[in-house]
Design the sequence.
């Protein structure tokens, strides 16, 4: 099979501190890139000079200058300039494995797919709570070539990764389907990645970690959420739901469309809850909910809700339930439930189902037994939600309870209880509870390394669980 050429597209904007490490990783590849296109997006520091020096030293570097237009526009500029068979996107504060090109080209010898996915490792420039394996692709049941939708069905939502930098894309495929990054918005990867995965005829996955993502303070990814970012998050969600509601896809993949619309809408609603502007939040939530209900009659027709859908639906419908007295959603209620009493009946059935699900989860933990000494791993929102739900649905906490942290000050207390490091735990403990879904495997591994028996570790979640208790706690606690 004819060899495939590979191009790296690198948007650059005021990253002089990190740029040389990034460009060195591209220049020193075991197998060279055929093209490395640097898009200087109006940098005002020394980034342009650094780019020029690499262009002069290496024949495969191309430099394009433009006025500052943002990450999406810079990537789109790179796409227009490239002539290679395959494209990889590199953020200029990250870097890549020196075998990225050789690994991609070796795989492409046997399969000229539309998208070749791979994993990434993470490096931290500052202390941050994050799942170390967030960017590791899940081992799939089908490790061969599959359609994008087949891949999507296997990984969404627990193992769905939206980073555009963790794949090689056939340029002809992107051009044919007119897939570009939405201009002038944050979270551009979300919509781009959805377009890619729904249109790809052939995809496959390399298990290798070929990309290194840097977490640094005040980057686009780690910087504080502003109202502009929240608004763009909602706009992106509206774009994605509109796209997944397109007639052909919806008719052929109604279960997947339903799962995506419910999950994404519910998670966006929860994320908006972190914004402090109540009027803004109410306005943005209404946009999300109205967009979600555009195809309710289609995605809800003749489909029995499973526990997955039930939890997400409860999160969405709770927003309507809260605003019933204001009349904010009267039109939706009358359109789909005829009147408020029918809506309440439907809502109450979802509530009862989720209440039982949470009760079944919580009764595994003997917090009500005075003879038990239990450590809960974590002192954040997951533990807070767990204990509130336990008291609300099960009863008072009678055990000798303490909390576990991975690092930090053990002199402080949490909920007036002692805090211990995971490697200095009380010897007479009877059980260890992990409250976080995201960090569950890492926390379990940390406890096992300390010689704690697996049978004494209580995990709240298994592979089938999609939402954690924080997602549904507000609606369950407030009825």
Sequence:
């Amino acid at each position: 099979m004819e060899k495939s050429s590979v191009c790296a597209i690198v948007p650059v904007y005021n990253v002089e501190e990190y740029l040389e490490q990034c460009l060195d990783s591209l220049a020193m590849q075991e197998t060279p890139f055929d093209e490395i296109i640097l898009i200087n997006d109006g940098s005002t520091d020394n980034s342009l000079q650094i780019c020029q020096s690499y262009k002069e030293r290496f024949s495969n570097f191309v430099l394009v200058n433009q006025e500052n237009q943002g990450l999406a526009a810079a990537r789109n500029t790179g796409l227009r300039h490239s002539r290679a068979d395959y494209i990889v996107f590199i953020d200029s504060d990250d870097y890549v494995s020196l075998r990225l090109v050789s690994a991609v080209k070796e795989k492409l010898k046997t399969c000229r797919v539309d998208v070749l996915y791979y994993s990434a490792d993470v490096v931290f420039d500052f202390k941050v709570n994050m799942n170390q394996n967030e960017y590791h692709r899940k081992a799939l049941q089908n490790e061969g070539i599959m359609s994008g939708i087949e891949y999507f069905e296997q990984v969404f939502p627990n193992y769905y990764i939206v980073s555009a930098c963790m794949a090689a894309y056939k340029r002809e495929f992107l051009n044919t389907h007119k897939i570009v990054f939405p201009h002038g918005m944050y979270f551009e990867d979300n919509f781009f990645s959805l377009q890619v995965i729904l249109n790809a005829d052939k995809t496959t996955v390399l298990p290798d970690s070929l990309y290194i993502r840097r977490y640094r303070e005040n980057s686009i990814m780690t910087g504080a959420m502003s109202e502009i970012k929240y608004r763009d998050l909602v706009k992106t969600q509206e774009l994605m739901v509109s796209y997944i509601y397109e007639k052909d896809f919806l008719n052929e993949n109604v279960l997947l469309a339903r799962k995506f619309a419910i999950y994404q809408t519910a998670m966006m609603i929860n994320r908006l809850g972190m914004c402090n502007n109540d009027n803004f939040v109410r306005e943005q939530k209404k946009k999300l909910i109205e967009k979600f209900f555009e195809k309710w009659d289609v995605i809800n027709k003749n489909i029995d809700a499973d526990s997955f859908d039930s939890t997400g639906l409860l999160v969405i419908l709770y927003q309507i339930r809260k605003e019933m007295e204001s009349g904010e959603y009267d039109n939706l209620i009358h359109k789909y439930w005829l009147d408020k009493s029918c809506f309440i009946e439907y809502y109450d059935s979802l509530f009862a189902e989720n209440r039982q699900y949470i009760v079944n989860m919580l009764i595994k933990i003997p917090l009500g037994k005075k003879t038990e000494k239990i450590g809960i791993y974590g002192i954040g929102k997951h533990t807070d939600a767990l204990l509130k739900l336990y008291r609300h649905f099960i009863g008072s906490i009678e055990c000798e309870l303490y909390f576990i942290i991975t690092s930090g000050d053990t002199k402080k207390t949490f909920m007036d209880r002692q805090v211990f490091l995971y490697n200095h735990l009380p010897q007479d403990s009877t059980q260890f509870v992990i409250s976080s879904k995201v960090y569950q495997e890492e926390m379990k591994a940390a406890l096992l390394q300390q010689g704690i028996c697996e049978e004494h570790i209580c995990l709240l979640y298994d592979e089938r669980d999609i939402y954690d208790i924080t997602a549904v706690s507000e609606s369950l606690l407030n009825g």
About this structure: The mean pLDDT is 91. The longest helix spans residues 340-362. The chain has 18 helices and 13 strands. The longest strand covers residues 203-215.
